[in-house]
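Researcher: Last one for today. Full complex below.
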Amino acid sequence: MSATPDFQTPLKRVKGLGSAKSGTHHFIVQRVTALALIPLVIWTIFLALALVHADYAHARALVHHPFAAVWLIAFVVTGFWHAQLGLQVVIEDYVHTKWLEIVSQLAVKFFFFVAALIAIVAIARIALA
Amino acid sequence: MAVVRPTSPHLGIYRWPLAMALSIVHRVTGIALAVGTLLLVWLLLALSNGPEAYASVRAFCGSWLGLILLFGWSWALAFHLTNGVRHLFWDAGKGYSIAQARNSGIAVVVFSLVLTGLIWACVYAQGGAA
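Model: Here's the assembly. Have a good evening.
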């Protein structure tokens, strides 16, 4: 018999303890972003090939096109999201010092979040100019 | 009371199956792509900043170091893409027999090299890199 009564419902207790249907979330998002990246990455290869011999004005015109801008932003967001999920697993597997693991996980999240934002702002500046 | 127990296979004497090598390469290329895609961010940032900034990105991409990085990036992308598709088939429950997994592994290596070759053929068909 405990001194303090337990007001938690069984549902409240199981959430955050077991999977409560969120344990596979990371796995699924990694696959969904992977699937989305197939067309995104193939188109980005074509864009990169078009950029090889483009001068500044031509290169800007290529990214200025609304379709290209949207597609590039989709690629950058999906790509860095997928990258962060992958690097998270790598850190989980190899970094076993608790504070170092937390610091590197946060560093990777912040770093790729900022990288994606920089790319989005750059694309928007070109597309809206 | 030392009990002699069987030990797990020692990496030094364990023959590397193809699947094991490809699994590790998938992870390594994934890390390389995460870092390498920052080059695209740099390019877009420079393109939004003006002709001088963009010229420095082009100069770097045309340098020996830039070309080596771009070549590595293109192969890493080709491999991670094709082997990623192989993983998606596994996730769907297909291709798990030893023969299938081995054949798809060989196919991934060949196709990633062909794709990389195609990309660089396109670069040089346009008259060389940068």
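DSSP finds five helices and no strands in chain B. The first helix of chain B runs from residue 18 to 36.
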